[in-house]
Design a protein that fits this description.
Blueprint lengths: L1 H14 L8 H18 L6 E7 L3 E6 L5 E6 L7 H17 L17 E5 L4 E9 L12 H18 L33 H24 L3 E3 L8 E3 L5 E3 L6 E3 L1 H10 L5 H12 L9 H19 L5 H5 L1 H18 L9
Antiparallel strand pairs: 1-2, 2-3, 3-5, 4-5, 6-9, 7-8
Helix pairs in contact: 3-4, 4-7, 5-8, 5-10, 6-8, 8-10
């Protein structure tokens, strides 16, 4: 009996930790414990639960006894506020109604909201979640084709059309037309303690250049809601050959070229495919006019944002990746300073 009590006490104590202090296995167990609570908020009865990923946020596939499937996204690192999730949901409804792009339209919780909110001791704050019907298909990133990239460009243009001159009537979206979007600058805080001085100096120099580009392009652009995370891990190749776009968690008010830069960032090790993104966009509307050097600095901005957010990540596996990502960042910035081109370099 004492042994059983000691085991329970150890298990219970681990859950009283801050989430960021848990190891990877305990973090998984902990977020799984939140699923039934959020499922009740969305009036969903659970039959099966599958962890899809745990990183910046966490996602589960949940199946009801009637075999209906849903995705449940729990925002464990996102700083989005309730009014932003309401505006996100409204844009998704608009995309569904105005285009043929399949997007994840959230279901309502028991209070009629497009999200659910629960206070979680391990985070010492309210944690937000959304749920939406499961979208069938596969992630194409491992066997990428020209058609996948072309369709991504096409669908990007349709998203931009849907958001032009549109203002949400429910909630609001944050301005993200800056190098770090709506994240705090952690390069000037204690979070940057692990960044050595030469790299930190490059970061500050490039940040200044990126801020100038964002300000200039914002003044020249029609700001609108953009996805802001359009890469091939966030699209689904559906059985009928169409493409769904998911994960609108980063969406906010920006300029269309930002979406291009984010997509291109993840294609820079596949330069022969990059042009198909532009061709797909041009099948719907004209590509925004830009100078190549501005695009390169928008790619640098993406690198700055990813590292900045990683410095404050709470998930254990992502925290372990920080030293390696610092070296990736150093290589990429040094290459840019030497060549004027961004390249997706890695240390391996």
């Amino acid at each position: 009996m004492q042994r059983a009590y000691d085991s329970f006490s150890k298990w219970y104590s681990s859950w009283m930790q801050a989430f960021s202090d848990m190891n990877h296995e305990n973090q998984i167990t902990f977020v799984q414990s939140l699923v039934p609570k959020f499922a009740r908020e969305f009036n969903l009865e659970l039959h099966d639960v599958e962890l899809l990923n745990i990183g910046f946020n966490v996602a589960f596939k949940i199946t009801t006894p009637e075999k209906s499937a849903y995705t449940l996204r729990i925002n464990i690192n996102s700083i989005k506020q309730p009014e932003e999730l309401e505006a996100e949901a409204e844009w998704l409804e608009r995309i569904r109604d105005l285009t043929d792009v399949n997007v994840p339209v959230p279901i309502r919780d028991t209070h009629g909201h497009s999200f659910s909110s629960l206070y979680v001791d391990a985070f010492e704050r309210d944690v937000l979640s959304i749920a939406y019907p499961w979208i069938e298909g596969t992630i194409p990133s491992d066997d990428l084709t020209r058609e996948d990239i072309f369709m991504l460009g096409r669908n990007m243009a349709l998203l931009h059309n849907s958001s032009a001159d549109w203002i949400p009537s429910r909630g609001r979206l944050s301005l993200i037309n800056r190098p770090l979007m709506n994240s705090h600058n952690h390069y000037v805080t204690d979070y940057a303690a692990g960044v050595d001085e030469p790299l930190l100096q490059m970061i500050h120099e490039l940040m200044s250049e990126c801020e100038e580009v964002h300000e200039r392009l914002s003044l020249a652009s029609n700001l609108r809601p953009i996805h802001a995370d359009l890469h091939l891990e966030n699209v689904i190749r559906q059985p009928d050959g169409s493409q769904a776009i998911i994960d609108f968690d980063d969406c906010g008010i920006g300029f269309p070229l930002q979406d291009f830069a984010i997509s291109i960032f993840y294609l820079r090790d596949k330069p022969d495919l990059e042009r198909h993104l532009f061709e797909g966009y041009e099948s719907v509307k004209a590509v925004p006019v830009f100078h190549q050097q501005d695009l390169e600095l928008l790619l640098i901005s993406r690198q700055l944002l990813l590292l900045n957010d990683l410095l404050t990540i709470t998930t254990a596996e992502e925290k372990e990746f920080i030293p390696k990502y610092l070296e990736y960042t150093r290589l990429r910035f040094e290459h840019y300073k030497e060549t004027g081109k961004f390249k997706l370099l890695r240390t391996e």
